[in-house]
Amino acid sequence: MTSSTAATAQSDRADRPTVAVLGTGIMGAGMARNLLRSGLPVRAWNRTRAKAEALVADGAYCAESPADAVTGADVVLTMLTDGPRVLAAMREASGGLSPGTVWAQSATVGDAATAELADFARQFGLTFVDAPVLGSKEAAEAGQLLVLAAGQDSARGILAPVFDAVGRRTTWVGDDGSSGAASRLKLVLNSWVGALTHATGEAIALARGLGVDPRALLDGVSGGPLDNGYLRAKSAVILSGDYTPSFSVANALKDARLIVEAGERAGVRLDVARAGVARFERLERRGQGDRDMAATYLASFDEGQEPSPGALDGRR
Fold first, then answer.
1. According to the model, what pLDDT value does residue 314 have?
2. Is 29 helix (H, G, I), strand (E, B) or coil?
3. How far apart are CA 199 and CA 306, in angstroms?
4. pLDDT tens-digit series, residues 36-45
């Protein structure tokens, strides 16, 4: 290979890095499709193979295993449910990993698990970037996630086209991925999301209990400082009764537990977050863990007594 050819190949890798996406569920699939739309080669793997196969029509390579997925990849992006699943997938991938490969860990796993994953990266000579994302299924599909990142300056160039493809903005919060700085910020942001979700659900439930049309709640805050797009979005889910998940109760419960655990380690009492865990656990016990997290509204009622959407017009 001539020096000019080598330089061209190096430039192509920087501009169009090959990305191995481990985890192509609700969020990972949307991210992978946006990587493909941006012209980046994608090697997709999911434990439920059909979810990775669904990306083949968009141009992805469907990998047989995590090791197959990461072989030849410049960037590994993990978007699995939790820390143990991420670590298990990366251990399975170890045979295909190359020293120097950039690993963008984008699942919400909490600060404690992030440290364990960073240790794994050091063992295999990977460049670890703590890079959780904030947003729902719709944001993932539209490439409008907020990427929170902490990692070495040397990784930023190769990750720029990756993060630009999946997100509306990237916020770098540190140069050491093992510090968990980005994951800690993600927990703070998720605590606010959880509080808004539960407050929306409880307010609409109270309206129903008092015989108030919940639309009067929305009219009352309209255009003022208490109004916001998230309130409108989750209210629409509740009022329609369609709990097709944008972000599921099961995933929200996992995140809520991480928030409470982080608060305990920091010596901070998080009473609202702890109550939110109880609400999500109630729904999971009822077999409603696969519903959108707006189903917290249903947790305000005894099992079997949840109102139908038609009951939300204020009539008692």
1. 47
2. helix
3. 18
4. 999 999 999 9
Look up residue 228 and give its amino acid: N
Question: At a CB cut-off of 8 Å and minimum separation 6, what does 192 contact?
Answer: none
CB 232 within 8 A of CB 218: yes
Q: Output the pLDDT for position 117.
A: 98
pLDDT value, residue 311: 62
**How big is the chain by its Cα radius of gyration, in Å?**
21
Counting as low any pLDDT under 50, the low residues of the chain are 4-9, 314-316
Is residue 251 classed exposed, middle or buried when 0-12, 13-18 and 19+ CB atoms within 10 A define those classes? buried
List, in order, residues 6 or more apart from 284 with CB less than 8 Å away.
249, 250, 253
CA atoms within 13 A on the CB side of 117: 35
One-letter amino acid identity for 197?
Answer: T
What's at 81, amino acid-wise? Answer: T
Q: How far apart are CA 270 and CA 255, in angstroms?
A: 14
Element of type H or E holding 40: none
Q: Give the pTM.
A: 0.91
CB contact set of 90 (below 8 Å; sequence gap of 6+): 22, 66, 76, 78, 97, 103, 117, 120
Place of tokens 């939300």: 312
